Amino acid sequence: MFGTTKAFSGFSVNDIAAAKKFYGETLGLRVSEEHGLLTLHIAGGTEILVYPKDDHTPATFTILNFPVEDIDKAVDELVARGVRFERYPHLKADEKGIFREEGPAIAWFTDPAGNVLSVLQQ
């Protein structure tokens, strides 16, 4: 039924202006705004809807993953742009906040609304 439908994902934030600045300026994504909604334009033609929600509760799981060729370089650049990396007590991360033990190296951070994002070694 939906095999030929172009689906898209979305998530909520509590402040569209802060989200637009973070995703556009801090992360360097192409962002468009229409009717109070943001669209994140991801490489490869993927679009993600970001919508305002007054009673927004941040996701407790990773909502968006950014694969990168060099995780150390990506983490260093994000830190230089003011991003703080999360540390989870049950996962042993290195001094940069990168977890390298199982699977691809990965580091988590949050957007201004508290949603969890990650960069992971491709």
TrEMBL record:
<feature type="domain" description="VOC">
    <location>
        <begin position="5"/>
        <end position="122"/>
    </location>
</feature>
<dbReference type="InterPro" id="IPR037523">
    <property type="entry name" value="VOC_core"/>
</dbReference>
<protein>
    <submittedName>
        <fullName>Putative enzyme related to lactoylglutathione lyase</fullName>
    </submittedName>
</protein>
<dbReference type="InterPro" id="IPR004360">
    <property type="entry name" value="Glyas_Fos-R_dOase_dom"/>
</dbReference>
<keyword id="KW-0456">Lyase</keyword>
<dbReference type="Pfam" id="PF00903">
    <property type="entry name" value="Glyoxalase"/>
</dbReference>
<dbReference type="InterPro" id="IPR029068">
    <property type="entry name" value="Glyas_Bleomycin-R_OHBP_Dase"/>
</dbReference>
<dbReference type="GO" id="GO:0016829">
    <property type="term" value="F:lyase activity"/>
</dbReference>
